[in-house]
Design goal:
single chain, alpha/beta, Rossmann fold, six-stranded mixed β-sheet, 10 helices, 37% helix, 18% strand, disordered C terminus, binds zinc ion
Length: 255
Amino acid sequence: MLSDLLDLVLPATCALCHRPGGPLCQRCRDAVLDCLHPSPRVAVPSPPPDGMPSCWVRGEASGALRAVVTAYKDEGRRDLHRTLSAWLAPALRAAAAADPAARASRRGRGLLVVPVPGSPRARRHRGDVPLRPLVTTASASLAGRVTVADVLVATRVTRDQSTLDAAGRASNLAGAMAVRPRHVGAVDGSVCVVVDDLVTTGATLAEAARALREAGAGLVLAAAIGATRRRSDHHPGLPCDPPLKGVGDRSNVGA
Ligand SMILES: [Zn+2]
């Protein structure tokens, strides 16, 4: 509300280049569009962590797309909410349409959409859970019965993921999430779509899926805005690589 009011009196600047034209100027928006796939596709981390759910993403989590997510989460640019929700929604729709059980659940007991829980440290640092409103808005574009619920909770303190490699991230997160007791009934036998912002090693989604399956989930799928390109897919010179000049180190996002 306050930001809405400020937008009326202050000219909005671009979240990436800080020139007039917010929340993203046309030049920076074009840079992000270069990171988006023509349609959502399945992201497979290399190597995939044990229990990695099938995950649909909208784009590649490098350069401008990663910078926009960081600006939203860590630089107070919550005015990017609509933009990021619109990029997440197609990935979520693709996940929800991918499996016959997922389609049937939306006509029956309902599809359960589950944001990954932020760490308690991140929540204290940011004062809120920025992923949650993105998931809520993106889920509104799903047809049928859909429930967004914070069924997962972090069960212990984990280290900052940004300094860890794939194996380190997996062991850092192993057993780090659980289904809240009051949600066990909703999870048991359900079809769940776990949602994160960006996927790097897949460790976060794999741990979320493990916790949901342990609580009886019948099927776990996943969706995210973007995923880091696999090394084997790396072709230098693609438009989305390297990061934009002047937007700083954007490595501390996602896991
Ligand atoms: Zn810009």
